[in-house]
Amino acid sequence: MALSYPSILPYDGLREGYSIQNSGLALMKSPMxxxxxxxxxxxxxRIVPIQFQIYFTPQELVVWRDFLWNRLGDGAAEFxxxxxxxxxxxxxxxxxxxxDGAEGVSEQPFADDQTLVTCTLNVRGL
Length: 126
What we know:
Elements: E1 3-4, E2 19-20, E3 28-31, E4 37-40, E5 47-56, H1 58-71, E6 79-85, E7 90-98, E8 106-110, E9 114-124
Parallel strand pairs: 1-6
Antiparallel strand pairs: 2-5, 3-4, 5-9, 6-7, 7-9, 8-9
């Protein structure tokens, strides 16, 4: 059973920081003797990388760090969280994983009471 994103943390990231870098993972390519290249999906499940940015208060940042470092094992585990689906115009619960784990998460102080957290999420089935 996958872990759940902490319900006390906000999940609605910044619109300007939310972007889909591509529509899926790279295809497998197999050269054929005829010179043609056969391309196909690597996986049957579509995984979409999404750039994600969100502001946390100091209290929320403590919860986030505990979740990232302890519950996710430095970001290695998958977890479910609400993700914006532009096609449905609503948040949908999806299984996600942080690309590069805790190493792929950056924190930037903003004012006295907020920290901007940025990471790339690999989202399943978006």
